[in-house]
Amino acid sequence: MANIKSAIKRVQIAERNRLRNKAYKSAVRTLMKKYLLSVDAYKANPSPTAMETVQATLSAATSKIDKAVKRGVYHRNSGARKKSQLASYLKKAVTA
Prior knowledge:
3 helices, mainly alpha, Methane Monooxygenase Hydroxylase, Chain G, domain 1
């Protein structure tokens, strides 16, 4: 364990940041899974209400990814890649 006051503070800050990052990453994964499930449901039974659900979950997932990038949880390119994967999943489902 650290003995120096500044080192102790850095340990506390690192733990706080780790928990914040963990919360954001977990939320992003959860929203991405919900989105993928809604796209699969739309693919099985295409309807306007199902598409509204898909759009709503896509919006929520994209928003959370953007917030995570803004807070420094994800790198800019990593966030862009995740959003691109979500969009391409929907495009494949719609065209198939």
